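Worked problem 6 (solution included).
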Amino acid sequence: MADFLLAIDQGTSSSRAVIFDSQAKVRFSAQQEFRQYYPKPGWVEHDAEEIWASVRDVSRRVFAESGVDPSDIAALGITNQRETTLVWNRQTGQTVCRAIVWQDRRTAERCAELRKAGAEADIIRKTGLRLDPYFSATKLAWILDNVGGAREQADAGKLAFGTIDSFLLWRITNGRVHATDASNASRTLLFNIHTQQWDEELLKLFRIPASMLPEVRNCADDFGMSDAAAFGVEVPIRAMAGDQQAALVGQAGFAEGTVKSTYGTGCFVIANTGDTALESKNRLLTTVAWRLDGKVTYGLEGSIFVAGSAMQWLRDELGIIDSAADSAGIAEQCGIVDSVHVVPAFAGLGAPYWDADARGAILGLSRGS
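Solution. The predicted structure is:
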């Protein structure tokens, strides 16, 4: 009897698979980190094949180590790092380049050009987002303009665009389904959160062919069946949502006015604003929290780009800790009297500053620091 749910959480630093029982209790989970690529200052990339391999590996591990048979899975749900942009060939399923991660700043100059041209007000009105390289549209345009032959192939209908959820769905269904959900679509700068449609004027502004875009579905919807090769049996795929919106659901933030704060790779605060798309007076984002049965619940979001990834920096770049847990001991050794402050603007500054050119700084150093 199919009594279990499988959740895939594809994050910025790692992929995780979790099996829940019929009482929503975790039966088993598995997690695997994958490589981050920094080819140039301000650039952050992921290898899509490494992401796909990590998702397959953690999924296989939860089945092998929990004793749950894939045939006992009633449904699969996917949650994902948002905004990260991929383009792949519709025939082969292969990406044309590495994924451009949400933290990537390479399109800051293009955003500044569009802002100077007066485009931001209309973008905010339609999408609820700022004109910032954080979001997908300028990343996608960069791929089309800088990867050899990409724009020509896109114009010919040969390429597909998606955020991580769409890419995983494509792979899990063996290319049968090209779709996303409203929460992820609302993070692209191409989706009108009021009409709940891809916006033709924004597609024209960013020079994006509509043929590349996935179909937008509800967060709880029929996303097809997994290919038998993915898990050994076909599994119904019934939910997708961006990770921060999914966290609001996970924290039972269903009532208007409910607020959650999540500390992961970055830090993200979302407030449930009900059926009203409130425009922030303090440079927060207006976003789709979720869409169910065609009814949209909106949210106000503050996005901080670096939180837990600062621990990765201490571990991988500075080499002063062996694991994230070691940071607690080091912090306890430092008194507040030291007055040394770190501004971890490794990927610019998010809300409320939206400064793509900001960089990290250590302040207050003395000879005794």
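Discussion: The chain has a mean pLDDT of 92.
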